[in-house]
């Protein structure tokens, strides 16, 4: 790894959202100034992350394994929403881009169904294997269980959001679920993550 050491490390950091080459360099310099203990703690914490935080086998939502096991009397594969005995509305699936969107929608109290986390958007110029895999999972999910699913596309009204919504609509077409989209209460370009409660409630109530 020696000659490629910096290259590898930088490329890993650049996988983080919003991090380009310049920010990756800043991270490297900052971590260089960590104490030796802090450097070891960081390395250990990253290595142990999968023990604590996991992605749901059904909806790909990240959940804290221990907190959830106690709170929901759940297993270690499913998030508290997808867990068999959860009281969520099981015929509604809201497709969202990232985990933070769920926090915001849950805070609004306007939705009681299930989710599907894409982990990104479909970008025609940039092949994202994770997103494509998750869309495949969505297809299987809708195809397998309820014939009368409503799939709510709640992606940000940006160019890539629109592109991704259209793509998913096309993929799901043969299964003929009811597909709705959030109303344009969200002004163009505003991300769901930053929308306030009233806006979310309005966008949900007026979905079509
Ligand atoms: Zn789940």
From TrEMBL:
GO molecular function, one term: zinc ion binding
Protein's UniProt name: Recombination protein RecR
Biological process, per Gene Ontology: DNA recombination; DNA repair
Alphabetic keyword roster: DNA damage, DNA recombination, DNA repair, Metal-binding, Zinc, Zinc-finger
DNA damage listed as a keyword: yes
SUPFAM superfamilies recorded: Recombination protein RecR
InterPro entries from the UniProt entry: DNA_Rcmb_RecR, Rcmb_RecR, TOPRIM_dom, TOPRIM_RecR
Source organism per UniProt: Candidatus Giovannonibacteria bacterium RIFCSPLOWO2_01_FULL_45_34
CDD domains named in the record: TOPRIM_recR
Bilayer-spanning residue ranges: none
Function as written in the Swiss-Prot or TrEMBL entry: May play a role in DNA repair. It seems to be involved in an RecBC-independent recombinational process of DNA repair. It may act with RecF and RecO.
Entry's family note: Belongs to the RecR family.
Residue span, Toprim domain: 91-187
């Amino acid at each position: 790894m020696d000659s490629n050491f910096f290259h590898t490390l930088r490329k890993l950091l650049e996988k983080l959202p919003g991090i380009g080459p310049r920010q990756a360099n800043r991270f490297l310099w900052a971590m260089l100034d960590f104490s030796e203990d802090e450097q070891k703690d960081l390395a250990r914490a990253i290595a142990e992350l999968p023990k604590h935080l996991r992605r749901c086998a059904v909806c790909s939502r990240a959940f804290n394994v221990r907190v959830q096991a106690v709170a929901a009397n759940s297993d270690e594969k499913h998030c508290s929403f997808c867990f068999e005995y959860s009281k969520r509305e099981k015929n509604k699936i809201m497709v969202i881009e990232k985990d933070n969107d769920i926090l915001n929608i849950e805070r609004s109290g306007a939705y009681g169904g299930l989710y599907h986390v894409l982990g990104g958007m479909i970008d025609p110029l940039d092949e994202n294997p994770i997103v494509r895999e998750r869309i495949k999972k969505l297809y299987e999910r809708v195809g397998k269980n309820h014939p009368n699913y409503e799939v709510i596309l709640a992606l940000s009204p940006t160019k890539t959001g629109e592109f991704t919504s259209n793509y998913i609509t096309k993929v799901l077409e043969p299964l003929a679920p009811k597909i709705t989209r959030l109303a344009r209460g969200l002004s163009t370009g505003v991300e769901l993550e930053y929308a306030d409660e009233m806006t979310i409630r309005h966008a949900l109530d007026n979905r079509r």
